[in-house]
Design a protein that fits this description.
Length: 457
């Protein structure tokens, strides 16, 4: 290697760590004061004070024993709380120490997503793509206080990113399966990741079977043998990926008689599209910052196929807003988020909030636009994988009562960020950088306005 190549490598490494450090320090600077200085019950740490921290103390007292029937104080699986209880055997069970450990989990998630982005975009842009997540009011909340959200998202993200490799290996598939199992045992709702894993395992088989219908393909025994090989490989990877998370879910059902324990099962499980309407409304808020400044978006919007896709997305969004009641209602779990606060101030039509009647169709159109753009940039397989991620995530909330913004904001920002990381090329990104900077400032304003009045200044 020449001296010039070594110097270029050093500059690249230095740039990587400089932007990664900026990202991590930004999140830590926001989360640590909240974790270390807020010592009283507030709205933001309600679940921590009422459920999660007492549960960690209970599990720590009995650790390593675990009674699946009596050692859980809430409806969620105990995996992450049991992990914290185990760590507390070394660090002690002081709440501030456990909060710092939880922040470290969030930092690992940000570092993982940054490393994934840098595979396709420069470190500066990767940092800008992630700053809206790192500064999110809800991501800070679930980082600075003892919540299971960010740990679960870390496990899910790691499992998904393993499947983005060009070729699956036994190690990747097994690792994804273990991560999916841990995610399910940390919070049952994360079982959704099994859908994308199963699709990725079977994707080569689906492609091969589709190709058989083309007359020029599979005309000889060698290609037939190739199809048989693809079939065996796909089925093998599917079993390796999904066996453990499915076993984990079956275990929980056998222990509790259902996915969720009573008495919470009857309280939180119901069929509703309110969560989908809320998710699409958030899409309407965030997606323009990511999509509109992208080079070539104007030309894409003029294509007939894009217009039809966006029309279908608009119709779907309107259906989600109309199908089930979605007015602000604390008793129904329709609270806890900026959009709910806005919805509470706007008119309601037959228990349907005007806010979601307006925003959900826009969000559906922008979801379709994202898919069209990703298809243009990277082809139908990458765009289909991304759509399956989003749909699998959303599907689990179609049978849940509670619709809190913290459930949706961080995953949605992750999906949007990864879509751009997958699809961006080397063209001018200055308008996108400015747009992401503006979104980051808005996120900072919400975070500072929400948390810092609570600090003991």
């Amino acid at each position: 290697m020449s001296l010039q190549q070594r110097e270029a490598g050093k500059r690249t490494t230095a740039e990587y760590f400089r932007w990664l450090l900026l990202l991590l320090l930004t999140h830590a600077a926001l989360a640590l004061p909240v974790a270390l200085l807020i010592n009283r019950p507030v709205d933001y740490n309600y679940d921590e004070q009422g459920w999660h921290y007492p549960n960690v103390l209970l599990l720590a007292e009995k650790w390593p024993a675990l009674d699946w029937q009596h050692d859980m104080l809430s409806e969620i699986a105990p995996g992450y709380l049991y992990f914290l209880a185990g760590i507390s055997q070394i660090t002690g069970s002081d709440i501030h120490t456990l909060r710092v450990i939880n922040i470290l989990t969030s930092l690992v998630l940000l570092a993982l997503l940054f490393a994934s982005c840098v595979r396709t975009v420069k470190p500066r842009l990767a940092c800008l793509l992630l700053l809206p997540l790192a500064t999110s009011n809800y991501f800070i909340k679930t980082s600075a206080f003892l919540y299971t959200d960010n740990a679960g998202l870390l496990l899910v993200a790691a499992a998904l990113l393993l499947t983005t490799r060009a070729k699956l290996t036994t190690l990747n598939s097994a690792s994804a399966g273990v991560l999916a199992m841990c995610a399910t045992l940390s919070r049952q709702v994360h079982f959704w990741v099994v859908g994308p894993l199963l699709w990725r395992a079977l994707e080569p088989l689906v492609v091969a079977l589709s190709a058989r219908f083309l007359p020029e393909n599979y005309q000889n025994t060698d290609k037939q043998a190739s199809l048989a090989s693809v079939s065996r490989s796909s089925i093998f990877h599917a079993v390796v990926m999904v066996a453990l998370p499915v076993a984990a879910l079956v275990f929980l059902i056998l222990q509790w008689g259902g996915i969720v324990r009573e008495p919470w099962r009857s309280e939180i499980m119901t069929v509703s599209t309110a969560a989908w309407a809320y998710l699409l409304a958030l899409m309407a808020v965030f997606a323009p910052f990511f999509l509109m400044p992208v080079t070539g978006m104007k030309n894409l919007l003029q294509q007939h196929s894009t217009k039809w896709a966006m029309l279908a997305g608009t119709a779907f969004g309107l259906c989600t807003a109309v199908a089930y009641p979605n007015a602000y209602n604390e008793d129904a779990g329709h609270s806890g988020g900026v959009l709910w606060q806005v919805a509470a101030q706007l008119p309601v039509l037959a228990e349907r909030s005007l806010l979601f009647l307006l925003l959900a169709p826009v969000g559906g159109a922008l979801l379709a636009l994202t898919l069209c753009w990703l298809h243009r940039q990277r082809g139908y397989l990458i765009s289909l994988r991304w759509l399956i991620w989003v749909c699998a995530f959303a599907s689990t909330y179609g049978v849940q009562t509670y619709v809190y913004q913290r459930y949706f904001e961080a995953p949605l920002l992750m999906f949007l960020m990864l879509a751009l990381a997958f699809g961006l090329d080397e063209k001018n990104h200055k308008p996108l950088a400015a747009s992401l900077g503006a979104l980051t400032l808005l996120q900072l304003a919400l975070t500072l306005g929400g948390f810092y009045p609570l600090l003991p200044w």
